[in-house]
Design goal:
- The structure is a single chain.
- The protein is α/β, with parallel strands linked by helices.
- The protein has one domain: 60s Ribosomal Protein L30, Chain: A (2-Layer Sandwich), CATH 3.30.1330.
- It has 9 helices and 19 strands.
- The strands form 4 sheets. The protein has an 8-stranded mixed beta sheet. The protein has a 5-stranded mixed beta sheet with strand order 3-14-13-6-4, with no helix packed on it.
- Strand 11 and strand 12 form a beta hairpin.
- It is globular, with a radius of gyration of 20 Å.
Length: about 350
């Protein structure tokens, strides 16, 4: 099928964001409203966090998840799709486009929307105008891929590139680092998340070691209202000890796509992932030995994801305290954007 804007199909995928905005001012207006909103700081509560090359889908009847979100994107792009009739929503964050994973996410949303009238609404956020052109390549790849998938998508928000960029002393900086969606209402907003859920070291290790071959994984079973990590594997990193010995600046320059604007949580999460790679070089054996995912459910009181017992017969019983052993490191605050800075649309 094709991308549509204001109900009109695009004859070809947009080769540049500039021309797309020039011919479709509604996209520019929607993006301006998004960046004007105040960033909301979201705690664990009823929130589900999606990291790079992960996706999650849910719907308004979910008893555990009311906010779906992702952050820490600079050159990455957040892709959010919501069905206007059912309210079913899917979210992913991409550092490279994976068509198979996107199609799988769209199919999940369609399945949750069976029997409802409505349209699939697409929101693209992030991928600021970096000086290396990394974001531009991701935007181009994302638009061309979404234009050729078999699902018709109504492009509502395209807050990418210059629309998501602010100038500080002449240098480009991301204007939005995170995105949230209220599953009940469909409202989207800039967001920062203080809790990213369990196994973030393991999840980050998957993308850090896997290279371009690592696709998207489905993070959430909406029918059981359970978070599921894995099973997956990754290649052992033979020089991991050497990486762990390096200073922060070296790691930042070597492993960040845009070191000058990396979020405060980048280095702590990177070191945590490297330590996990050293501890579990073969996760298919040491972590997912039975080829089963690590399952979590929301604790109604704390909002944290709590590990379930391994035995299927005990899934219905309260989780034992011994599994509730993960700790979420505090997320440093973002540097404030100067009021006098000019925002380029």
């Amino acid at each position: 099928m094709v991308l549509t804007i204001d109900g009109k199909a695009l004859e070809d995928y947009p080769h540049s964001v500039g021309s797309l905005l020039q011919h479709n001012p509604s996209l520019k207006e929607n993006s301006a409203r998004l960046v004007a909103d105040k960033t909301q700081v979201v705690g664990p509560g009823s929130m589900l966090y999606v990291s790079t090359r992960e996706y999650a889908t849910t719907y308004p009847h979910d008893n555990k998840v009311s906010i779906l979100g992702t952050d820490d994107f600079t050159t990455n792009i957040a892709v959010l799709v919501r069905h206007s009739g059912s309210g079913a929503v899917g979210l992913t964050q991409l550092d490279r486009v994976n068509e198979e994973g996107l199609v799988a996410m769209l199919q999940r949303i369609s399945s949750l929307s069976y029997g409802y009238e409505g349209r699939m609404e697409l929101h693209l956020v992030g991928a600021f105008s970096d000086t290396k052109g990394i974001s531009a390549a991701i935007i181009h790849s994302c638009l061309s891929t979404l234009h050729r998938v078999r699902t018709t998508l109504e492009l509502v928000t395209c807050c990418v590139g210059e629309l998501c960029t602010v100038r500080r002393n002449g240098a480009p900086w991301p204007l939005i680092y995170g995105l949230g969606v209220n599953v009940k209402t469909g409202d989207i907003f800039p967001a920062q998340f203080t809790d990213k859920g369990p196994d973030m070291d393991l999840r980050a290790a998957r993308t850090l070691t896997g290279g371009e071959g690592v696709g998207l994984i489905d993070l959430y079973d909406v029918n059981r209202e359970e978070l599921k990590i894995g099973p997956f594997s990754y290649e052992p990193m033979r020089a991991v000890d050497i990486w762990l010995q390096q200073g922060d600046e070296f790691l930042l320059q070597s492993l960040s796509s845009c070191p000058e604007v990396s979020p405060p949580s980048f280095l702590p999460q990177l070191r945590s992932a490297l330590k996990r790679i050293k501890q579990d070089p073969y996760p298919s054996v040491s972590v997912f030995g039975s080829n089963q995912p690590r399952l979590y459910r929301k604790d109604d009181l704390t909002g944290h994801w709590v590990r379930l017992n391994k035995e299927p017969d005990s899934w219905a019983s309260p989780p034992s305290l011994q599994h509730h052993n993960f700790k979420q490191e505090p997320v440093p605050p973002w540097p404030a954007i100067p009021v006098q800075s000019q925002i380029y649309y």
